Every structure is written in structure tokens, then in C-alpha cells.
């Protein structure tokens, strides 16, 4: 009997021990992150080994690549080229370059236009379609340490530690959900998946990642990972997933969110002003004289119907309307269009020619010189007063509103709720499980 036991393969013995003591998951988890947020379409990239020992694999040739080593990859004409440790440039015969860790540390990566970003783990570079595609292969928990402080903030550790834990569980669940069923890669882009910025952003949020290690949210019936969606600020009411992506989800349903009220600064209350001519021209109309909003039960705008002073009208979805004025790539501020949770009102000027001709029933309201000259909150004022009036959109919240409100989670943490309370409040029919 003893001989039979000792002949059990080593891996099986390890798995047996794991099941008996219910320790951390035995299988090593690594994620492949396609770096498209700041390094997409890169023509030239410089990589330096900050710490650790690596191997550089080029055209089936492997060489040592210790700390202090550097690599430049670029192109000459239509041909990929590279330079190792400031040696002569050489033409890459193949299309793949790999930097693989022996004793992994960190790699500094930068393009001529941007500051360096530092990544743990390995790098896989592929020349395709006249640019370099970069993939960072990194342990899933190290990946999360580069996600949580970007999706929330290291500064939230003071009073918001439980919110950071909730964010860690949600981000881990998102990762597992979006890399299962044979999909091995995820991007670093917040517009596609979730934001990932590597090692330089690591800080106090890493404590939250370690404290919830391996924990994810699963559906209480199927026990499968849920779609753990989240956005910055719900505006006081979360949204049904079907109203944003057209697919119902029992784990992401609309409900009042009092914890997101009165917090969040500009994300809590914002205002966007646009002149009637600019509003109309944005959608192929003349100066808009009427705006009608069709709303979901949550209060978010489902569609916007606009009519100009000449009888022409157009209806667009709330999301299409927001995208027209959303401040992409700009700092978030009070006078910006941040989401589809808004009201609309018009303020006329004494110079409105359509009012004088009887084509509009907008009350005669005299306006101050600045408002009457405004193109929009984004475009600023004109030199002359704008006729036809202006529209004011008063809104709440920032983002799609589905799932967890990050500002609401922060407020709950400040009020003494723990991360399990937070996750239970924002996700329906879900349980915490270990991967």
C-alpha cells in the first residue's frame, strides 16, 4: 500500500493536498494582455530591463538579457529592424521577438512620443500590418495590481479600503469571465476591457488585491463567473444591462443607489450648455427649437428627439447623443457631458429670429452677455451674440451605470460597510467564490 501511494504522480499528489487543505489555487494563472491603450499601432519601441534576468529570443536565437539590457524595435521602409544594447541595427528575418523571464523583474517600455510604462512579466512582440503588436504575459494577481489603482485610486485606501477590495474582486471576475472559453488575451484599454497601466501605478491598492486573492463573483444558480460590470458614478440609480448592451443580465439590474448621491464632485452633478445652432448642426438639423427625451425607468435617456425651426426632426439614442459631446481625452469637469442621465431645458435670447416670426413658443427670457454668446461648454464663446437660444443639459453620474458604482462603493466603505456588503448591494443573485 505504501509503495502504491508513493508512486502517485507528483502533480496528483499536489492536487490532492490542495483539495484537503483548501489552500490557494494550485494552477499558476498567467494572463496575456495586449498593450493597445498607449502602445497600439507603435512603429518604434524601446525596451529596457529594469530588474531581473531575461532571455531575448530573436529569429530562433536566444541570448541572455540581464538587468540594464536594452532593445529597440522599429522599421526601415516596410522591413522590421531591431538593435540590441546599442549595437548595429539588424533586419528581423521573422516577425516575432520575445523577452522571457528567467528570474522575472520588470521591463520599461516606451515610444518616442510617450513616457515609459513599466511591466512585470514577459513581453511578446509581433510585427504585423506595419506596426508592432505588444503582449505582456504576467501573473493574474500582478495584472490586477496594475488595474485597481487605475480603475479606482490608491488614495482611496484612506477610508475606502473596502471599496478597493470590492474593485479587486470585480476586476478579477471581469478578467476570469473575459479570458475563459479559450479566449486567452485581454487588452489594457479601458474602452475595450479594463484599464491596466503596469507596475508604476502599484501602491496601496495592492493590499486590496492581496486581501481578496483568488476571490471572484459567481452566479448563485450556475456558479459561473458573472459579468462584473462597473462604472464611475451611477447618478443615484444603477441601470439594467439590457438598456445599455441589449442583453438582459440577472446579475446587473437597475435599482436605486443612495450611496452615490452627494459624492463624486463633477461626476455627481454636471451641466453642459450648447447653442441651438451648434446642437442642430451636430445632427444635420437647423437651429433646434424643441428637444424631447424618452427615458428608461431609471431616469436615463433612451432617446432624444430634436426638431428645428423649419419642421425637420431627428431622433437618436441617448448614447449616440452623449457620444457627440462627451469630452474624450479631456479632464473631467463640471461643465461636460458625462452620461445619459440628464434633463434638458431651453433658454431663449431676445435675438431669437424664429421667436419673432412666431415659429417658436419659447418664453422671452433675456440672457446675460456670456450665455448668449456661447457656442457650447466645449467650444467656448463667440465674438457675437448667438441667436436662437441655448440648451442646458443638467446631468448626474459618469459612465453607463451598470453594476457597481465606484463612487458609491467608496461612500459605502466610508460608512463602515465591508467589501462583501458592497458587492452584495451592487450585484444581484451573486456569490463570492474562490478560483
UniProtKB/TrEMBL annotation:
Record's InterPro entries?
SpoIID/LytB, SpoIID/LytB_N
Signal peptide residues on this chain, from the entry's feature table:
1-23
User: In what residue span(s) does the Sporulation stage II protein D amidase enhancer LytB N-terminal domain sit?
Assistant: 129-218
**Gene Ontology biological-process annotations:** sporulation resulting in formation of a cellular spore
Transmembrane regions listed in the UniProt entry: none
- Record key words, sorted: Signal
Which Pfam family is one of those matched by this entry? SpoIID
Q: What is the protein named?
A: SpoIID/LytB domain-containing protein
